[in-house]
Design goal:
single chain, 1 helix, 8 strands
Length: 107
């Protein structure tokens, strides 16, 4: 798995299956992972799911329509929107400490 700093990433969007890792606070463990998933009941069709620790499997947030890149028919989240809205919509941690991996690799 190759992890990148989210704050330094380029590109219009990140697709479903992308994993975001950051420092956790209660009720999460020291490190917490969130996966971008397809979620038809969300206004954008996207949501974040907790994929690590005791909270794994819990839906974190359904994302708004504005979170998608303009005119995108692909299941992506806008990197620009996510940078501007990380602490409001996803998790209250410094964006500079968020790491991203496009997909988990089976081991």
């Amino acid at each position: 798995m190759e992890w990148q700093n989210f704050s330094g990433m380029n590109g219009e969007g990140l697709g479903i299956g992308t994993v975001f890792r950051c420092q956790g606070t209660d009720p999460y463990e020291k490190t917490v992972d969130f996966m971008l998933i397809e979620y038809p009941e969300s206004p954008s069709g996207l949501a974040f799911l907790v994929t690590s620790g005791a909270m794994a499997g819990h839906l974190l947030v359904k994302l708004p329509k504005e979170s998608r890149p303009n005119d995108s028919f692909h299941q992506k989240i806008s990197t620009r929107w996510l940078r501007s809205n990380w602490t409001n919509w996803v998790y209250n941690t410094a964006l500079e400490k968020v790491r991203v991996c496009p997909h988990y690799q089976a081991v």
